[in-house]
Amino acid sequence: MSNARDGFDAIGVVVDWIDACKQRRLDDLLDLYDVAATVE
Q1: What pTM did the predictor assign?
Q2: Per-residue pLDDT for the chain (40 aa), expressed as one digit of tens each?
Q3: How far is CA 22 from the centre of its chain?
Q4: Which of 10, 23, 38, 40 is a good FRET partner for 3, with 20 to 30 A between their CA atoms?
């Protein structure tokens, strides 16, 4: 599910998040969060 406007790949982010959780990579998990993020 890529947004053509900004190239955001939601499925890719979910896969990366799950992989980081499974491998207990806290730094990678924190990198996925953005302080300025909003939900639309």
Answers
A1: 0.61
A2: 545 567 778 899 899 999 999 999 999 888 888 888 787 7
A3: 15
A4: 23
CA distance 17 to 28: 8
Rounded to 5 degrees, what angle do the CA atoms 13, 2, 32 make?
Answer: 20
Contact 11, 1 (CB under 8 A): yes
> Which residues lie closer than 8 Å to 35 by C-beta, 6 or more apart?
none
3-state secondary structure of 8: strand
Q: Read off φ and ψ for residue 9, nearest 5 degrees.
A: -110, 95
What radius of gyration, in Å, describes the C-alpha atoms of the chain? 11
Segments making up each domain of the chain, as ranges: 2-31
